């Protein structure tokens, strides 16, 4: 798959890998987030990385985009956020056999 093309649901894999990488580089306060966002008028399950200080690194097309937290929340009408430390996220991925989402509030999300 070309790097600029991401398949539906790939944000979970990309965000987990990015969070783990930042954590291994010593970035403080890295959190993997799963939540609901509105994209093109449709409510979708989504994953992203939050950094200490409120910046959000959003990966959905194999490119990192950084938003201030408030701007991202407002632009994409974010709700129902569940946050994980990189360590907890890695353990959940191994235990479940997939990149997420893991919380039952996301049942039915691909």
Strand order of the largest sheet: 4-3-2-1-5
The backbone outline, from C-alpha atoms, is: globular
Q: Give the % helix.
A: 25-40%
Biggest β-sheet, characterized?
Answer: 5 strands, antiparallel
Structural class: alpha+beta
Unreliable stretches (pLDDT < 50, length at least 5) are 1-6
Rg, alpha carbons: 13 Å
Number of strands: 5
Q: What is the average per-residue confidence, as pLDDT, rounded to a whole number?
A: 84
| Order of H and E elements | HEEEEHEH
Tell me the fraction of residues in β-strands, as a range: 25-35%
Structure annotation, total helices: 3
Through-space gap between termini = 19 Å
How is this structure best described in words?
This protein is α+β, with helices and mostly antiparallel strands and 110 residues long. The chain has a domain of 74 residues. It is built from 3 helices and 5 strands, in the order H-E-E-E-E-H-E-H. Strands 4-3-2-1-5 form a 5-stranded antiparallel sheet, with helices on both faces. Strand 2 and strand 3 form a beta hairpin. It is globular, with a radius of gyration of 13 Å. The two termini are 19 Å apart. The N terminus is likely disordered.
């Amino acid at each position: 798959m070309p790097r600029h093309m991401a398949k539906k649901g790939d944000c979970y894999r990309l965000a987990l890998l990015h969070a783990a990488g930042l954590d291994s580089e010593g970035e403080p306060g890295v959190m993997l987030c799963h939540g609901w966002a509105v994209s093109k008028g449709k409510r979708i399950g989504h994953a992203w990385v939050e950094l200490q200080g409120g910046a959000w690194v959003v990966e959905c097309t194999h490119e990192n985009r950084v938003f201030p937290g408030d701007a991202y929340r407002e632009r994409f009408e974010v709700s129902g956020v569940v946050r994980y430390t990189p360590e907890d996220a890695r353990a959940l991925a191994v235990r479940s056999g997939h990149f997420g989402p893991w919380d039952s509030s996301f049942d039915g999300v691909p």
